[in-house]
Amino acid sequence: MVGDEEASIVDALNALRHRYTYVFTTGGIGPTHDDITADCVAKAFGVSIDVDPRALAIMQERLVATGTEMNEARLRMTRIPKGADLVLNKVSGAPGIWIGNVIVMAGVPSIMQAMLDEVAPKLKTGIRMLSETVRADAREGDIGTQLGEIAKANPEVAIGSYPFFDPQHGPNTNVVLRARDAQKLASATRAVEDMLQRVRGAQSSGVIGPRSFRACTVSGPGRVARAALRNAGVSPFRAKPSCRAGWMRGSRLRMTGAAIADRLLTRS
């Protein structure tokens, strides 16, 4: 964001318009004294600015239709840098500005959207970016390393992971893949889907219910825990053969089977 300061706006425009295909600005082309964007655009391009007959005609037609009179403030909105094209505004009349690769639009969201709709079909575009979204049904931390390996093997495909919370099943992740080549995108997507299937398959051997919790065997309490979980409506699970890792280490002596079941059901 650039404030209403002439030097800052001019510097930003001159820096960005030489680096990017298009520069879009919003705000600062209204009727008040601090609406200085049009003047700054003219200064950045080294051209004059004055009342534009095309913009004036549009505004006069709009004012007649709404029963409003022209005044000095509204006349400010017809000032256009020399050599610029107008960006039509079907909402309130006052046009935007298109000069070089700089497109100047209103700051009011509904008016800006109307102006953007006008210019969008005229923009030069490159190769279309394709994307695929895969629901992981796994936590981001469970697939981070594998995604990194797939990304390394598919350098022309951008792969991102975005965690979210599913009210029914808890923490989850969306994997988004983007590429310009449809075949490369499809290949990387298959690699992600295959990896997710392997991860979910590996987890299923030690998972209880839909929450992806792991459990380990603790002789007597372990059997009681499984029975308590079944009574609580949780699908039966296969327990790991040892109790060397995780929070259940040492639970044999300190926790009852019911307590273990409670911890498993409530652990996040």
In short:
This protein is α+β, with helices and mostly antiparallel strands and 268 residues long. Helix content is 43%, strand content 17%. A hairpin with a 2-residue loop joins strand 5 and strand 6 (102-105).
Low-pLDDT segments, ≥5 res: 207-219, 232-268
- Please state roughly what percent of the residues sit in beta strands, choosing from under 5%, 5-15%, 15-25%, 25-35%, 35-45% or over 45%: 15-25%
Radius of gyration: 31 Å
**How much helical structure, as a percent, in the residues?**
40-55%
CATH superfamily of the largest domain: MoaB/Mog-like domain
Helix/strand-derived category reads: alpha+beta
Based on DSSP secondary structure assignment, what is the total number of beta strands?
9
The number of distinct helices, counting runs of at least 4 residues, comes to: 10
For the largest beta sheet, what order do the strands appear in spatially? 1-6-5-4
Measure the end-to-end span.
Answer: 40 Å
CATH architecture classification of the largest domain: 3-Layer(aba) Sandwich
Shape category? elongated
CATH fold name of the largest domain, please?
Molybdenum Cofactor Biosythetic Enzyme, Chain A
For the sheet with most strands, the description reads: 4 strands, mixed
- SSE string, helix = H, strand = E? HEHEHHEEEEHEHEEHHHH
Give the CATH level 1 class of the largest domain.
Alpha Beta
Average predicted local confidence, pLDDT: 83
Q: What's the number of structural domains?
A: 3
